[in-house]
Amino acid sequence: MRFGRKGKLSLRFIGPYEVLERIGPVAYRLILPSELEKIHDVFHVSMLQRYRSDPSHVMPVEEIEFNPDLSYDEEPVRILDVSSKFLRGKTIELVKVLWRHRGVEEATGRARQTC
Question: Which residues form the Tf2-1-like SH3-like domain (predicted)?
Answer without folding.
Answer: 3-52
